[in-house]
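Subject: for your reference before the review

Hello V.,

The reviewers asked for a structural picture of the protein, and I figured it would be easier to keep everything in one thread rather than splitting it across files. Below is the amino acid sequence we used in the manuscript, unchanged from the supplementary table.
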Amino acid sequence: MTARFVSRFALGRRPGFGLALTLAVLATTACKRESARGGAPAPSSAGPIVLPPLAAESWMVPLSSPAANAALAAVPLGARGPRPIVLALHGDAARPEWACGSYRHASSGRGFVVCPRGQPLADGTRFSLASLEQSRSELRAALRALKQRFGQHVASGSVVLAATGASVAAAIEIALEEPSFFSHLVLVDGSLERFTSGVVARFAGAGGRRVLVVRTGPSSAGEQDEKRLRALERAGVETRRIHVERASGLDGATTEALREAWPWLVRGDSRWD
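And here is what came back from the structure prediction:
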């Protein structure tokens, strides 16, 4: 995270997501609190941080937050150092548990997977995507709760932003607010129309690095996808497209395909080692 990012959002020069700033501020607070208690030391250039093994009551836990329905997080149990984050937006008529489970498997349990709930449907068991502003608020609250609960086990730096179906357009919109923070995107079965020439230039020029597009079922979007991905590639963003024909959404076959592509997605980021 750059000083430019911190100053811009702290001074409120434009409406912004503020997740990277939230993470930086909470990390500093946690380090000071641990030092005062004689706990784990703050990060330094002397070497990697070694922490007590991360423990929780389950591999997936609710995050206490101001939201009425708290987000969920899959946690990297046993981690002894700061771990990176996947922010996973589910699609329509889905559940956050499904996204958390899929991306935990896809990432081999190496990081945190934060899964907002969205808006409950009439059946009381499934959820739809919240509005863009509500999604921003949910993610801010969830990240704050994650850092407050797991402290130094939560790594600073960029995140993987994943979305399915109707949430893909929202994810692209969110990523544009700070491409260097939302530098890696996973977009499953959603429209890529938001990647106009101006959006591509903005994402690439401000730090976007990789975009993984996944299509399931008898998809007919190949030509349109390739056009958008070629534009991203020309702008300097690495891309990959996967078509899992005998799959639907984030089912088992899709999750396995994501797992195979994950090393490419996070290549060069030692936090995922």
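For the response letter, the relevant points are probably these. Residues 19-37 form the longest helix (19 residues). Confidence is low (pLDDT under 50) at residues 1-16, 24-44.

Happy to draft the paragraph if you're swamped.

O.
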